[in-house]
Each structure stands twice: as structure tokens, then as C-alpha cells.
Amino acid sequence: MQIGLVGLGKMGGNMRERLRNAGHTVVGYDTKPELSDVGHLSDLVTQLDRPRAVWVMVPAGAATQQIIDQLASLLRPGDVVVDGGNSRWTDDEKHARELDARGIGFVDAGVSGGVWGLEHGYALMVGGNEEHVARLRPIFDALKPEGPYGFVHAGRVGAGHFAKMVHNGIEYAMMQAYAEGWELLERADSVTDVREVFRSWQEGTVIRSWLLDLAVNALDEDEHLDRLRGYAEDSGEGRWAVEAAVDHAVPLPTITASLFARFASRQEDSPQMKMVAALRKQFGGHAVESVKKA
């Protein structure tokens, strides 16, 4: 299958490679010429056979809106656009209306997998019209992990990004729990090898997980996380999840507390945020801030 891919950063570039490895034809465009297959977005569109499919992997908000606006004028009725970034689900509804007015389909895809997706595959949470989703199944099947799991058609437009938002809220809470446990162990005089305590939990315990494995990776690289500043960004989904919980009158105390813990990292060098920052780097390749030496 042919597909255009707009945005070839850490995830987009790996997705292009995974799709090509599966035998699909990918025409990639990025504002960085050294990453791009074509010089302009219009060149990407002209190289695809109709009906065309274009997957957008750029930051949520203004950047996504700009690409959607450009594609609306370049594509034709029967084509379809996939937003695979971390857009807010309410933006999906707006984009779908704008493109539908021109006869262009729209699918939102929440994508999880970070820098490990090339090797292990990406979990995909998809929203949109059944016809559009079915057309794109060869692409979804190539991107997802092998086996029966890792893909869901979650519902109508917006459902994919809503599901990814909830996923990320749970991720916030799980990382915060590991970080709090790590700090408490570090403070206890009787515990002399915190890293090996974490390692011992990787088998046979009810808290074993991929995040725990990544925490051990981070501690192997920097046993006491001394090289990291205790600062961790929040990418937006945590805030949106808390807002959605208020709108739906759903109690979300754990996810809300983990979001506020991120805010605490803005004020001082938080030991817990060292672990959260280390985990975000491990699974997503997110930037971390190093301790500034005097």
C-alpha cells in the first residue's frame, strides 16, 4: 500500500522504516531536508496514487492545524488523512468537519510505543468511520506488534485520541508510583542497594511491568540518577484527562495527583521527578535536563 507520512522525527522516522520493512511504499515529508523524501508537501501528494492516504505525525495544536489546512487544499474527494500525533480529541472533531466538507476522510490514531516501536511495534487506538479505518488496515497491521493485540478501532472520530489520553493518564500514575517507591528506598539507611531491589521486582511480583524494566535500565545507566535534574514535562494529555474527568464527573484522584507532582518539579530539584524523567527518556526518547555542575 502507498501512504504519505508528514513528520519524520523520533517516531515518524521509525514508523516510515517499519512500514517500508513490511513492504509498503512510504513517501515522507519533513521540514528538515535531510530527513525528507520530497522537497514540499505538494510533492508528497503528487507522488501518491488516488485515492490517497496521508498520515500526519507533527506536534498537536497549531502545527497539526497548519498541515491539515494545507492537505485540505491539496487532496481530493476520496482521499483520507490520519492524525497520529497527540492531538486533543475535540480538535479531531473539528478537523473531520473541515475535511468532510471537501469530501476527504479523517481518522485519528493514538500511537504508543515511543522509540521502541520500530522493533516491537506500536499500540494503535483509532477513531473514525468504519470504511476509512478498513482502508487503512494494512498500514495499521504493519505498525502494530505481532499477535492479536495492539490495535483497536475505539469508536467514532476522536475516540482514538481520547483512548490515548486515558492511556497516558494511567502512564503518569504508574511512573509516579515507581518514583515515590524509589525515593523512599533511597532515603532508608537500611537499604544498601536500591537498584538491585528494583531489579528483583522484575520477576515474580505483581508490580512487574515494562516501565519497571525501563526503570532498571535507567538505574544501570546512572545508579542514583545523580546526573539528572528532578524536572519532568507534562505533554498535555494528563491535563486533558483531568479536565475530561471533571466534565464527566469521574473521580480521578491518582492520575490528578501524578499530574500535580509534575508541577512540583517546576519549583525545585525533585528526587521523584528524576525517576519520572529517566523513564520518559527510556520509553520515549524524551529530552532530560542534566544537573548543572558548579
Automatic annotation (TrEMBL):
Residues 160-294 form the 6-phosphogluconate dehydrogenase C-terminal domain. Coiled coil: none annotated. InterPro entries: 6-PGluconate_DH-like_C_sf (IPR008927), 6DGDH_YqeC (IPR004849), 6PGD_dom2 (IPR013328), 6PGDH_C (IPR006114), 6PGDH_NADP-bd (IPR006115), 6PGdom_BS (IPR006184), HIBADH-related (IPR015815), NAD(P)-bd_dom_sf (IPR036291). Keywords: Gluconate utilization, Oxidoreductase. Pfam families: 6PGD, NAD_binding_2. PROSITE patterns: 6PGD. Belongs to the HIBADH-related family. This is Decarboxylating 6-phosphogluconate dehydrogenase. It comes from Streptomyces viridosporus T7A.
